[in-house]
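Researcher: I need the complex structure. Ligand is pyridoxal-5'-phosphate. Inputs:
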Amino acid sequence: MKKNNEPIYVTKPSLAPLEEYVELLKGVWENGILTHNGPLVQRLERELCQKMGLNNFVAVSNGTIALQMAIKALELQGEIITTPFTWIATVSAIKWEGCTPVFCDIDPGTLNIDPTKIEDHITDKTVAIMPVHVFGNPCDVEAIDAIARKYNLKIIYDAAHAIGSTYKGKSLLEYGNVSATSLHATKLLNTAEGGGCVTSNVELDKKLQRLRFFGHNEDKDIVEDGFNGKMTEVHAALGLANLKYHDDVLNDRKKKYRMYHESLSEISNLQFQKISDGECNYSYFPVIFPSEELLNKVEKALNDKNIFPRRYFYPSVNTYSKVVKYESMPISEVISKRILCLPLYFNLTSNAQELIIKTIMNRIAVK
Ligand SMILES: Cc1ncc(COP(=O)(O)O)c(C=O)c1O
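Model: Output:
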């Protein structure tokens, strides 16, 4: 079988021209400031706020730390209701902060936590809800907000996928008591490793800034237990270089998403995530197969052509029985077994995309 020369992976980081990154690094070499909330971190925070219409952005070293800082800042202790259809980091952040994850199943269309099931999981120990905007598709933030108000719970959005997503014209990061995002290499906007917390509460914002810096306040006094969540200047420089191209990356993703969707919709037994068109950032293209068997066959056909999609999220996190107490989550478990994310990134060529589509169509046509 003829293979492509270059393997095609599920994603490839979006990177600004190297010269533009190097130009920013020259300043770092000149001033000798590598970390400690330096000028580039502050500039990245400012420019991100301008671009996304945010009041603040506390840049940190990764998205997992951002989630932990959100839990710490809200001083939560008890049960946190979350989704099993996520990356393990959502759950490990809850556990590292000494809280207990309680799973609530997902909506089979949007793949986000099903708000109609959340109340079933509320006990007298529940302190918060931590939904995930899965693949950048907005959760039902209004329904979740109503539940949180009714039971006096906090909301932390795991917005790891949600940079560039909006809801009712506002950045999706503006919702919840805190939103925690990721700027990991695989995300729409990346600093290689990185993340950030967003909150509209000024006091909470200050607390988040203290927590990421060992508990120091503005007068350099240690006023509480913090840790090291700082982003470095080298990472911030990459974020600033990449931020200039953020709109191009977003628009390109949307075009490629539509191309997959239009072509693969011709296959009647495939399902797609029900997204809020125009609000989702189109950062992933997941396909839900009618069976795991068919998924395996399609994946093998793609691998034979040097194309490597990814089973994501798989398995359903509630089934990691070494780290969580198993409770049946039928929708998440079934979807996890049948979902495959196709390659989707800025430098994916239209030839490569056509080859992926053709390979899937051909494999499905074979009985
Ligand atoms: C849903 C979700 N939450 C949290 C994270 C953690 O982000 P990070 O890798 O920046 O720590 C990820 C990472 O991909 C994720 O997909």
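Model: Summary of the prediction. The radius of gyration is 21 Å.
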